[in-house]
Amino acid sequence: MSLSIPHTKDLQAPDAAGPPHRSHPPMLPELPWGFHSCAADTPRAPPWGILGALSPCHPTPRRWWLKGLGTRVRLVIAEKGLPCEERDVSMPLLEHKEPWFMRLNLGEEVPVIIHRENIISDYNQIIDYMERNFTGENVPQLIPEPGTLLHSRVLQYRELLDSLPMDAYTHGCILHPELTTDSMIPKYATAEIRRHLANAGTELMKLDHEEEPPLTEPYLSKQKKLMAKILEHDNVNYLKKILGELGMVLDQIEAELEKRKLEYQGQKCELWLCGCVFTLADILLGATLHRLKFLGLSKKYWEDGSRPNLQSFFDRIQKRFAFRKVLGDIHTTLLSAVVPNAFRLVKRKPPSFFGASFLMGSLGGMGYFAYWYLKKKYI
């Protein structure tokens, strides 16, 4: 999918200097599927990464479940009310290795934003770029002015929430469902994933010795590192340790939300994490809680009544238009996003290790489950 933001009088023009970002080629490469157009029949691709093109064309919004960082970028765009068209880049299908994408982003990372002649691929730089260039009378500011108390609070919680090991929570909860309650991950998934993890070493060796390997050595190296990370996250003692640390972080946030109630007592305003203003910190916290609920950790951390302020925050943020637009109903968004597009993954038949490892990290396993369901049914 692609992200497109029109140039209008309501949006500030990007400043001359702009934030640091990846240098771009003299001319943007030609992109497939009419990437810079807004045709209604623009083909869809599986939701495992996000490539954004911020261009002056009509929005064609679609709803997908994305990996954490892509979701946060989309929430920022939605909160600012910027029309957008989105284009997914499928990592299991190696679309991030396609020449057209590598010309945009040599690091082969997602998400990527294209705005005019600027190409930005770092998650934090994308958010800073959006905040720096798209804030005005009709576009809300999500990071308060420097030097203010609100600004320091937002930066504090941005750093704290960005430091949480979300991939470890995801891998660990998939592989150890006994530590979760009401997880939205199918029960048969753990055994299926473990079976493929056990065969991963053999599959990697086969790929190493193919006469015409479809995967480059850097790519194989990256996958081996990812495999090592997943195996580390399979350690139940490590998982219990980081979940305990997560509890302490949520205790801190619960206390901060209580401070806001005392600080603004008697004032008529909707309270958020850093004050009466909705900020980037709230987006990051909302996205984090959304993932934790999907993994089956919400009853452990707030739905048991232990953190009422956190419960109230989550209930309110789910009602915001941007969150409903980007994330939708947590019970229905997952499969509606993945299943229709899993046919491509089934048809291509990628190595099972790559499908399992990438999809575990990006979708908490949902695309992986859809892949195997369709493979068994139609192949």
Automatic annotation (TrEMBL):
InterPro entries: Glutathione-S-Trfase_C-like, Glutathione-S-Trfase_C_sf, Glutathione_S-Trfase_N, GST_C, Thioredoxin-like_sf. Keywords: Membrane, Transmembrane, Transmembrane helix. Residues 57-138 form the GST N-terminal domain. It holds the Pfam family GST_C. Gene3D superfamilies: 1.20.1050.10, Glutaredoxin (3.40.30.10). It comes from the Eukaryota. The chain crosses the membrane at residues 352-374. Residues 1-25 are annotated as: Disordered. Residues 186-353 form the GST C-terminal domain. The keyword Lipid metabolism does not apply. Belongs to the GST superfamily. This is Ganglioside induced differentiation associated protein 1 like 1. It comes from Coturnix japonica (Japanese quail). The lineage of its organism: Eukaryota, Metazoa, Chordata, Craniata, Vertebrata.
